[in-house]
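Folding problem:
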Amino acid sequence: MPELPEVQTIVGDLNKKVRGLAITGVWTDWPNAFRRSPGGWKNFEPSVKGRKIEKVRRLGKNIIFDLSGGEKMLIHQKMTGHLLIGRWRLDKNRPVPEEQGLLSEKVNGYIHTLFYLSGGKMMAFSDLRKFGKIIAAGGEKFSDLEDVKNIGPDLTAAGFSFFDFKKALAGRRGPIKKVLMDQSVVSGIGNIYSDEILFVARIHPLKKTENLSDVELRKIFSAAKKILKKAIKLRGTSISDYRDTAGKAGGYDKVRLVYRKEGAPCPDKCGGKVRRIKIGGRSAHFCPHCQKL
């Protein structure tokens, strides 16, 4: 699932490529993606058609489009979704890219929604597993969306301090790996970056949050800032389906430390090997020598 660095990369691209353009039409072969939008697919296109994209921003793992007239559009890419900018034609109700290249690669070919934009541009949502969701709502309806009102603070936000981080974790109990991935605690961190952050901080993923000292919390906070900044600079991780708006893979997976490296030597050459365990149904990768419980 795209996490904070991947979503931030997409948002940056969209502000350069589609900001100021109007949505002139929408096509889909998967109306279920709009089931959480007020009125569903039936009301979605009338809600956004003709509206200008004034700004694109990130809220946790959500992409928010601020549209003219106060309307807003939310896209959550979920497990395998990513947004692409280009041109496609429909061939037997199947989108086909107008040009060969990255957009014609298989990973970018699971397109189930197309946004037609002014100036001849198009925005496509490729989503292999079809778990993504697209919502249009304005005013109070948008503020009341579960995807919006329960989002925790952003670690990368300007001015977000260690004391803000400590406050966000106050009263939280259970494995720190699980707490870091709770979007109501801090937003944007998922399976990939929680593993990377805890390795850099030398904290075992099973360590209880309520037992962490201030020194350990500072290590996690510092590691989170460092890892997320680096991953944003490298335009995200593309171990799975994530691609940027041009269809290009991110670069962080080439420098990742422990995520999905079970059995590999510890990156710090301590003599240990990366292990994988399950925490709350999710995998956690760590070095048992460097990250003692």
Observations:
- The mean pLDDT is 97.
